[in-house]
Amino acid sequence: MTTKRYRQLIFLFCIVFSSCKSDSNHPKLVTLKIGAEAPDFLLPGPGTDSTRLSDLRGKIVLIDFWASWCGPCRKKNPHLVELYSRYKNRIFKRASGLEILGVSQDNKEVDWLKAIHDDHLTWPQVNEKKGRTNNVSLQYGIEYIPTTFLINEEGRILLVNPSIEQTEEMLNTL
Prior knowledge:
Layout: H1 3-21, E1 42-44, E2 50-52, E3 60-66, H2 71-87, E4 98-104, H3 109-118, E5 125-127, H4 135-140, E6 147-151, E7 157-160, H5 164-171
Parallel strand pairs: 3-4, 4-5
Antiparallel strand pairs: 1-2, 3-6, 6-7
């Protein structure tokens, strides 16, 4: 490939991708920072239950954005089950236990409920049903799943997308 042709391709690539980013039909994703207050939300859970994030104040909360069809999410679930069993009843300096709040991106409720059952997810679960185009995903800047946020007892963000190990390290300091 000639240098001229290469430059043309690079130029075309830049034009295509810069126009996609500036498309006014796609809302700009938010970037939440450590220390910021986690945006509150109310989403439906299985059946007629709904959960509001602010109702979990007083606990450390790990918000887990996931879906039944997401391989990496399902692979992470056994580690979350183990983490939850170790810390759910732990008394922290200023918080009473760890709560995980699963926020599903599933459109098919039957698949979502089956994954909850099959993966032994015993913590509260809610479903956006519209995936990443839902207001909650936009508020949290979700570009991919799994994505997690560790929130302190006052509703402030402690960690953004931590690994299980980073989550445990932080929990052991609280």
